[in-house]
Amino acid sequence: MIEKRPIDRAFEEICELKILIRNQNKQMTNMEKIMIQIKNTLKELQDFKEKEVIEKEKLRQGWFY
Question: In sequence order, which residues have a C-beta less than 8 Å from that of residue 30 and are 6 or more positions away?
Fold first, then answer.
């Protein structure tokens, strides 16, 4: 087997690093999407809970609408 020149080894390592970085960027993007979905879901739950509390308070006070 022919020994690789240092420049060839360096090029291969750079390629491997580029692949790792690309994969990490994809993972970060996916994590950001999941975080946004969680944030939106929590906001929806909070809004629902607030509306539920308001409705219960109105009923307790005898509001008719």
Answer: none
12-43: per-residue pLDDT in tens? 999 999 999 999 999 999 999 999 999 999 99
Rounded to whole angstroms, the Cα distance separating 39 from 57 reads 27
The 3-class secondary structure across the chain, one letter per residue, is CCCCCHHHHHHHHHHHHHHHHHHHHHHHHHHHHHHHHHHHHHHHHHHHHHHHHHHHHHHHHCCCC
Q: Which residue has the tokens 């307790």?
A: 60
What is the pTM for the complete model shown? 0.62
